[in-house]
Design brief:
Length: about 280
């Protein structure tokens, strides 16, 4: 893949309308973006107005961005053992997927869930059962659902490749499913990505347990917290525990070259520099 065709972007802001996230991506020199299609801290969200959908597609055509990804609400827990939370999560996820279809988004990234008072096994089974209920809706658009790897903080599931493989096996054939690797999260979950050999070992593990054909996206973040700490705190590239060599290896690894990459690093003011840095590393 040519350097100018590399899909690298960031989580841009949809404040003032979802089309603004696209335009910001263009200004950053991005070739893809991630966004929230609605307020990520509210349960009750609405469809996107038709006029705004038109502005969205105009902005996408203008910028040429590809493989745009939504990140669902932080409130959603498809594995919740609490009936009221699960009901609200299901409705919110349904609304999110409908908005993804309105915008013809390539991916919907979501955190698998948290067990809270249940066992991890019960949580995983509930996530699968929840996803299966979206079979009809998912078939009405082109959006693929991506499980985000987690750091394993608290009772969150999805920090081990085995758990992600279990969900994929259960949901496959019912919804279009896949994985988004977050570099900070897997590092804090105990998968090393600090150099080329470490990446190679981790990707071989991923391939053996999940299958690389299920890897569709990367969240690109350094980590403020140390290896295997189970704590999720993002850092700017090269300013954390992963270090710049890890991201150079990521950009040069043949198995990752064509996978879209989305920055979620904390300093938005240097995103354009980080995008250019990743491009140069490739």
């Amino acid at each position: 893949m040519k350097k100018e065709k590399l899909l690298i972007g960031a989580h841009t802001s949809a404040a003032g309308g979802v089309h603004k996230a696209v335009l910001e991506g263009g200004e950053l020199g991005a070739t893809t973006i991630q966004l929230f299609t609605a307020n990520q801290k509210q349960w009750n969200t609405k469809p996107i107005a038709e006029a705004e959908v038109e502005r969205w597609f105009e902005a996408v055509e203008k910028t040429g961005l590809q493989k745009i990804m939504s990140h669902d609400s932080y409130l959603i827990n498809l594995g919740s053992p609490k009936p009221d939370i699960l009901e609200k999560s299901m409705k919110a996820f349904e609304n999110e997927l409908k908005r993804c279809h309105q915008l013809d988004l390539t991916y919907l990234n979501f955190h698998p869930g948290a067990a809270t008072t249940a066992s991890r096994e019960e949580c995983l089974d509930q996530i699968i059962a929840s996803l299966k209920q979206f079979e009809t809706l998912a078939s009405e658009g082109n959006t693929r659902l991506l499980l985000e790897t987690t750091a394993g903080q608290g009772t969150t599931v999805g920090n081990g490749f085995e758990e992600l493989a279990y969900i994929i096996k259960g949901a496959k054939g019912h919804v279009p499913i896949g994985v988004c690797i977050d570099t900070c999260h897997i590092f804090c979950a105990g998968y090393d990505v600090r150099n080329y050999d470490a990446w190679d070992k981790t990707l071989n593990q991923f391939d053996k347990i999940i299958g690389l054909e299920h890897l569709y996206a990367l969240h690109v973040n350094d980590s403020m917290k140390p290896f295997d700490s189970r704590r999720d705190r993002h850092a700017s590239l090269g300013q954390g525990e992963i270090g710049i060599e890890g991201f150079k290896a990521m950009m040069q690894h043949p198995k990752l070259k064509e996978i879209p990459k989305y920055l979620e690093t904390p300093k938005k003011e240097i995103w354009s520099e980080e995008i250019q840095l990743l491009r140069e590393m490739a």
